[in-house]
Amino acid sequence: MKNKPIPRATAKRLPLYYRYLKVLFDSGKTKISSTELSEAVKVDSATIRRDFSYFGELGKRGYGYDVESLLDFFGRMLTEDRLTNVALIGVGNLGSALLKYGFHQNNNIRISAAFDVKEDLVGRIVDGIPVYPMDDMAEQIRQQQIEVAILTIPSENAQDVANKLYEAGIRGIMNFTRVRLNTPSNVHVQSIDLTNELQTLIYFLNHYTD
Question: Which positions make up the DNA-binding region (predicted)?
Answer without folding.
Answer: 16-55
